[in-house]
Amino acid sequence: MRGDDPALGVHLRAWCRSEGHGFGVDPDGGYDVVRGDAEQLRWAGAERAGDPSPQGVVRRPPAHWGLAARGALVEAGGPAPGFDIADRDVVWADLAPRLYAHAAAAQWDPATAVDWTIPEPLTDEVEAAVVQVMTYLVENEQAALVIPARLLARVHPHFREVLQLLAVQAADEARHMEVFTRRALMTGGQLGTSSAGGRESLNSLLNEADFSLASFLLSVLGEGSFLSLLGFLDEHAPDPVTRQVTRLARVDEARHVAFGVAHLEHEGALDPTLRGRLRAAIERRHDALVDTAGLNADVFDSLVVLAAGEWTPEAIARGHAAVQRLHATMDDGRRQRLHRLGFPDDEATELSALHTRNFM
């Protein structure tokens, strides 16, 4: 290497030392640089973090793969973040990549997906019922946001599709909170009530640290029951805005339920003890909530009023009957999902009856 700068030799020598290359003064003028092997040695011990495709997911990715992209060549010696959910069979579902693709394509904008106009004012009683139910939905959606967000931070990033699904699920719940709040406040009033029993029921979900059990209690049983509730609200909505927001939310919730069921089917096929743990989770939660009031009485009354549509004894009787049918529909859905997870009919019936009276 030759050059006119009188400091070339000084700087070139220093650079070669820092990069691991040989340096010498050429007797014919200039300098000789001999390529060192530091660059090759740097990648000694490097390994591929599985394969980029879902088929390349390994069962137990090492901690030192950390945030490296699945399939990347990982240099040895990096940090080892503490993602404690790092077993494929504890989080995976073969359906996860397709569900994420569906979720990404199905995102909707609250500002444009909903026509935020109500043609005619509702009666005071019916509007108050809508506000109370929306208040209850927001409370439950907040729990449904916090749980996947917490799990998301604990799952090894190697299970990329699961992280993506949990992230979209949290975004879904954030959107539901927005539209339910906006509908509740459309007429300028205040939000409804929040019962201690309802919050106690939701708090019992927050306390479940096990990924599979949290997914079971929240997505399979809780959000599964909410599919029936949102269908009920769609059917009995007194105005188009209420109908639209509950219908949009129900599509999202169906995807959350599908992942929960698919994951537990995957794990159940590999772990014969899973059903026993699921049963214990239901019983433990039931015992913890047995002395609580369950569903907020204001919410129950509001559902009756919405189904009734008017404040007459005959209509209220019809509304009450409709809410009883809602309970039966929720129970039927839970029993079907429990049966799909391998519980015999009699045990599915028993366990469904132990589910929280707060629905979620």
Automatic annotation (TrEMBL):
It comes from the Bacteria. CDD domains: Ferritin_like. GO terms for molecular function: oxidoreductase activity. This is Para-aminobenzoate N-oxygenase AurF.
